[in-house]
Amino acid sequence: xxxxxxxxxxxxxxxxxxxxxxxxxxxxxxxxxxxxxxxxxxxxxxxxxxxxxxxxxxxxxxxxxxxxxxxxxxxxxxxxxxxxxxxxxxxxxxxxxxxxxxxxxxxxxxxxxxxxxxxxxxxxxxxxxxxxxxxxxxxxxxxxxxxxxxxxxxxxxxxxxxxxxxxxxxxxxxxxxxxxxxxxxxxxxxxxxxxxxxxxxxxxxxxxxxxxxxxxxxxxxxxxxxxxxxxxxxxxxxxxxxxxxxxxxxxxxxxxxxxxxxxxxxxxxxxxxxxxxxxxxxxxxxxxxxxxxxxxxxxxxxxxxxxxxxxxxxxxxxxxxxxxxxxxxxxxxxxxx
Length: 337
Known about the structure:
This protein has helices spanning 44-52, 94-104, 109-123, 138-151, 168-185, 196-202, 220-225, 230-235, 244-251; strands at residues 4-15, 18-29, 33-37, 59-64, 67-68, 79-82, 156-160, 188-193, 205-210, 213-218, 240-242, 258-261, 266-269, 276-286, 289-296, 299-306, 319-324, 330-332. The chain is an alpha+beta fold. Helix 2 packs across helix 3 and helix 3 (109-123) crosses helix 4 (138-151). The protein is globular.
């Protein structure tokens, strides 16, 4: 038996006469965590809603656990959904929100109670079961929403930017919680986000989408280290796009197309015989790291250093020397505008 639990084949999705997804295909293995990452309006949520059955596909097919569900209504697809705004019933307690799907399925009351209590304990929300959504924090509401999706036993969970409404510390805690729950329950996750850090920290694979077309798919590490084109290089992490004249002075190499250098691959020195002269125009202390902007030859380069690598007592306006670490640049022929 195939270990592919979700298979999307050559999907075209349109709103009226406007086609927003073009020939999209993806196979997801059972237990895999896949994130769909891209800028606003690229079609991420459209694909998720098509998998869920809320939007129909103009062409192509969707198979869930070996079953063709392309034309099946949403309620007959074995998926759980965690929405961006949680979509909890405001007049119901956390217990009733979690139990809702079981009640619709006419599950015996004693089984509902046992299953809700078990999943609440696993999700760390046992103390919240009698509270209504308005009485809970954003993080607690998100846990209730995930528990509600999990309790029906769905093998695939769809997450539609579920952490975007949380503050930064709670967001980090919740993404770790999602990963822990996935490990414990073994569900397959299809996660939509515009946040690179979320996608890269959670996922086995990340698919980068632009204008309804897949640009690259791979691990977060691979996307960052080996971007397929200029768009992926600019979208994943930070990059300096450097003119041919400057990069040739910095590296001693000749280049065609567009050339990018990551901020951490730029070296800063106060030695007078290393690299090209530059002037510091900005210093930002960001905890363990320090971000610098340096002006040289009419361009601005961004450098990222650990605090202990920063030459002592540097300040804005100081002259430094800049060089690029050997073979650290990315070169593309696509010349992204």
